[in-house]
Amino acid sequence: MTHFDPAAATAAYMATLSPAAHAKATAYTHGGEWLLLWSCLVTVAAAWLILRSGILRRLRDRLNPNGDRPKRTVIAIAVSFVLLDWLIELPWSIYTSWWRERSYQLSSESIGTWFGDAAKALPISLIVTTLFLLALYTLVRRVPRSWWLWASGVAVAGVILLVVITPIFIEPLFNTYTPAPDGPVRSEVVKLAEATGVPHDKILIYNGSKQSDRYTANVAGLFGTARVAMSDTMFKQNADMSEVLGVVGHEMGHYVHKHILWFAAGLSLMAVACFWLIDRLYQPALARIPGTDGIGALSDPAGLPVVIIIFSVLSLLATPLSTTMTRTAESDADRFSLANAHQPDGLAKALVKTIAYRASSPGKLEEILFYDHPSVERRVHRAMVWKAAHPDRIGAPYGPLPPGQ
């Protein structure tokens, strides 16, 4: 019997891509890491320009000269800020979300289609941001000493609500979702769904190639709205049955283990820390940022750009925490796929295709700081280790390992 070497098998999978392809993926990934810093600086600069313009102060003085109409003032300032920020950052958004993706052959989306989606997203952003800021400034006024604690609860509740409604009301605005068509692929996916307790009517295909050529699938929603969706790029890139099952098994892991609730718990802790720091840093920042004349305490909505500046910097610093939280869930979903779909080679083949937009073999520190998924090489190696440990499970009926194995 031939000895199976997981390390050699992993190296063979990595070698299926040329050195030039690996170099291109590394360049794209490293550029994306720098974009985290540049995007933060662009957001800070946009907020500062809005602050310096004095538009929000003048709007506040016109709408609320006596201080007795705070709600409509917050709404007007929130809408104005979102629109101004969107316009100022538009060139940067075009570069990062459209031009850069096309330049790396990760998208064939036209600029017209991109603008169409951006135009649809803007009113959604306006509504969500305005409602949240209205709640936040109401809390700051009414419970000034503990607003940050209540605000974190509002933020988490809002995120959960968005997760619930997104598959029903938001995602269909951008893509078309249809049940997986009858055929061998659907039959096997339904069998896997039944073995893992996932409703098979929640397995959908969407036209993800409209925006991106990335090989991907996702899980969205919560409770009754949760579903697993596969991008049509999977099939356009000739995914075989084992790849589809490996990927869908991974997404089913997110569904079954309710990882969105993990994220909600982690987000609640991060939100508490973030809002507490904003409460402590607002006045020092107000005193040091030029152009803040005429802006009052934290309850003054004209100081919103200062809040955004602090939040942007804190979000950048929190990147390792958020990526580690997501990376942990991704590792758990991989384990679920292997234990239930039993497709280590299928999962490995699918993972190799994601190297196009995610460098395969980063250093450990780089992975911790920037990667929201484990490195492809590490994930493939884990799949090969599983294969070596469970040769009898390859091709076995779907479902978890028997007790004790």
Q: How would you concisely characterize the structure shown here?
A:
This protein has about 400 residues and is mainly alpha-helical.
Topology:
Elements: H1 6-14, H2 19-53, H3 55-63, H4 70-103, H5 111-142, H6 147-174, E1 177-179, H7 184-196, E2 203-206, E3 217-220, E4 227-231, H8 233-236, H9 241-256, H10 259-288, H11 304-317, H12 319-341, H13 344-353, H14 364-370, H15 376-389
Parallel strand pairs: 2-4
Antiparallel strand pairs: 1-2, 3-4
Helix pairs in contact: 1-15, 2-4, 2-11, 3-4, 4-5, 5-6, 6-10, 7-9, 9-12, 9-13, 10-11, 10-12, 13-15
Task: Give an account of the 3D structure.
The protein contains 15 helices and 4 strands. The chain is 69% helix and 4% strand. It is mainly alpha-helical and 405 residues long. The model has no long low-confidence stretch (mean pLDDT 90). It is elongated. A hairpin with a 6-residue loop joins strand 3 (217-220) and strand 4 (227-231). Strands 1-2-4-3 form a 4-stranded mixed β-sheet.
Rg, please? Answer: 24 Å
Instruction: Give the fraction of residues assigned to helices.
Output: 55-70%
Kindly report how far apart the N and C termini lie: 22 Å
Number of helices: 15
Strand content: under 5%
Largest sheet: 4 strands, mixed
Globular, elongated, flat, extended or rod-shaped: what is the shape? elongated
Given helix and strand content, the structural type is mainly alpha
Strand segment tally: 4
Mean pLDDT: 90
In spatial order, strands of the major sheet run 1-2-4-3
**N-to-C SSE series?**
HHHHHHEHEEEHHHHHHHH
Unreliable sequence segments: none
